[in-house]
Design a protein that fits this description.
The complex is a heterodimer of chains A (468) and B (482). Chain A folds into 3 domains: 282 residues, no CATH class; 109 residues, no CATH class; 57 residues, Orthogonal Bundle (Arc Repressor Mutant, subunit A). Chain A has an 8-stranded mixed sheet with strand order 5-6-9-1-10-11-12-13. In chain A, helix 3 links the parallel strand 11 and strand 12. By secondary structure, chain A is α+β, with helices and mostly antiparallel strands. Chain A is built from 16 helices and 15 strands. In chain A, helix 5 packs across helix 6, helix 13 packs across helix 15 and helix 13 packs across helix 16. Chain B has 482 residues and is of the alpha/beta class. Chain B has 16 helices and 11 strands. In chain B, helix 2 packs antiparallel against helix 3 and helix 10 packs across helix 13. The radius of gyration of chain B is 21 Å and the shape is globular. Classes of the chains: A alpha+beta (468), B alpha/beta (482). At the A-B interface, strand 14 of A face helix 10 and helix 11 of B.
Chain lengths: 468, 482
Amino acid sequence: MTKIGLEIHCQLTKLESKLFCSCKANYREFEPNHNICPVCMGLPGSLPRLNQKAVESATSIALALTCDTPEKIAFFRKNYFYPDLPKNFQITQLNVYGDMSVGGEGHVSVEDKKIKIRRIQLEEDPGRIIYEGASERTKITLVDYNRAGTPLVEIVTDPDFESPRQVRVFLNILSDLLENLGVAEPGLEGAMRADGNVSIEGGNKVEIKNIGSFHDLEKALHFEITRQQSLFERDIEIAQETRHWDDRRKITVSSRSKEEDQDYRYFLENDIPWVEIDQTTRDRLKENMPESISSKKERYVEKFNIAPQVAEIIASDRYYSKLFENAYSVHNAKDIANLITTDVIGFIDTKEKQQNSKITSKHLSDLIDSINSKTITRNSAKVALQEIVKSGKNTKDVLHEMDLGQVSDSSEINNIIAQIFEDEKQAVIDAKERPETVNFLVGKVMQKTKGKADPVKTLELIKSKLNQ
Amino acid sequence: MNLNTSILQYIEDVKSGTFTVEEFTAEILQRIKDVDGDVHAYLSLNDSALNDAKLIDKKISSGDKIGQCYGFPISIKDNICITGTKTTCASKILENFIAPYTSTVVNRLQNEDVVIMGKTNLDEFAMGLTTEFSAFGPTKNPWNLDYVPGGSSGGSAASVAANECLASLGSDTGGSVRNPASFCSVVGLKPTYGLISRYGLISYANSIEQIGPMTKTVKDSAFLLNVIAGQDANDDTTIDNNNVDYLENIEDGIEGRKIGIIKEMTTSEGLSSEVSTATKDATGDFESLGASCEEVTLPTIPYTVAAYYTITSTEAGSNLARYDNIRYGYELESEGYEYNSYISKSRTKFGPEVTRRIILGGFVPSAGHAGKYFLKALKVKSKLISEINKAFEKFDYLIAPTAPVQPFKFGEKIDDPVTLMLLDYNTVTANLTGKPAISVPYRVINGLPIGMQIMANSLKEKSLFQSAYALESKTHLPEVPL
């Protein structure tokens, strides 16, 4: 049986500042080495000042993942030399000698299977190394310390996954959860990363590092499983080792640096005293936690009778659920939900588009009102949406400017039908013999009116003309 | 002009117009010029000292708000950062490091209008007891230039003893303030861990070290502590001292107080007969002051030096890892090196003692050996803490000589690291337990000083000063012959 475990790193990008200084947690907009100070550069004499909000965010994550949370936490030093590490040690957490990290055991349900969370720890992100020409063989290696000290949460699972697909489902659930909590933006480049470990029946555990995206993780896991199976079939021992994902060749490669042999000489970071997280704090964090995705989904289904798939899509995305929550009234909730999942998603399908979109909840309720009062057709609503997303103009103006008002005047529609009956004689004969083909004629009318004709009325009028 | 004056006397004199800040500063500069060629207390001087003094004089004459220090001259150990000045830790590896920020202690001093004379010599990265491990040459003991001044804050102690300033800030990881204070006959305080901000102090063993004032008198020590102590947002380990005034009631005496004489520190093998006699005299003095003295035993003390070196090496190995010559450092062409060979090469600039401790620090906490060394040292530490806490249930103070011997000649012990380490025997306990301890000048025998150490319970500095002041008033010491 294949066993896969994960080590996920997620930056707490919603925080104002880094873990131990007041530099920005959001380092992405800065010129290289312009978001740094004596503390995050580890200059001689500087001391870390713990960002208490980061402890709270990490604790919220632990609580949301049903982890045990301790009364007090400690930090440790993980000692190793690397150019992206200003102090040549990383301040992180460890569960030893009775000291605990922000989160102990918890679990996440993935399609009827419980994935056990082993621990959650709060730590600092290192800087970034840039190899000129994107190759490690380059003569020039650059280091950008803007990222150094960014608050990072590490989530470690037990090897409970049985397939790369399960991993993908879990990561989707996890990133939705982190985003919903309002502590992280997993969609940001490099904000959420995952390493995996794989073992197959009868083989040793192999860790895979250096994986750039979730997409690559799935590929790396597939590759690794296949590699191990083929070794197993040929009776070759699967060595316990760390392998790197070679993004260019799309294979895993044995690490020459013996990371598994590295001794990190962990010991307490005495510059940061134990941090108390008392019951009151934990209660407050729980209370302030946004509604969970599953409870949101349940509420949408039960209260508004929205289809479970539709409710799921809206509940698990902060952007859509916010649009929805602000737009609905009890009588139009279902229509708004459907409008979001059938049309809005088509125009706004990435985080970037979400950020740039000009659409508001008012637009959605206006559009649904217009459809329900038969001022416009469903089709016209879609056309209008596309414009609204871009311009953000109010719905009435858009409908007017684009001439999207619905044609529901019987005589006007009848005139058009008469013309279609002239042009499509064969179709008329067909429709008389086989009534199910009548939709062709309806479609022609819609085409002629650019989708503005009231489809129900059109069908009614065509049917009566056919019967004449 | 008498340069051998206390801070408090100096302030009186400036206030009464006996001399100006500029006049006094100029005299001190002249004194430095006259004696520091021999003493070598300073590694660098503040070029604008005279100018700083003039500005303070201007404040005084114009009736502006003036800080409580009135421009008295102070020196700062060269492991404490001041913006725009070299902070070398007496190491080749930081030879040209210019700090881009100022430590909290220096900030607080400058806010109260001190004149900083310069940065003082130390054993490289504060590791040593003689200043012989300074990469820039040792400091000499002003009492006899053939003798070591103690360390690691030897430059600070010597600068005060030689009247090259009125006070200094040192740092004390295992005795680095108290040992040179004892050797140079000045007052040296290692406060409760967390009482003084370490922000801007270059870390050696951060879990136990503290910055401490080095002064000519006990009252000056209390005065300086008033200025620099207290919580600091830049150091999470600092504690609130409720703005205690350490000078207030300092002359109250110690009648009826209970003093424990630490047996392990007063009967140890390495104790010289002069020091032993002085300790007995001190006990008599305390009794004549109305305190009751009794021997107390802390059985873990014989293991403390080993535990101390294990813990400090572990932390030093980690704290000094950042000196890889990549973000700052000295000129070393990187062409032809890969990362690991480059940093190995660059780190060969560390001196022998620092190298020794870094190597030790790579070993004692390592995966296969932590249980035998590092974790055991932590156990010694926690055992010692419970022993000393128990002792403080009974005693107000615990006393012992600061150092088991008097100053010795250069080169005498430098080649014998273990003997050198044993000089810490009486001082490391205060660091390992976080308790405050003060070294008070007590005797000068054969022209060489002996200091007496008093320890008190955590945050009992006020009481500690009362005992130190009482003992100081019992002594009549000669002036430094320089």
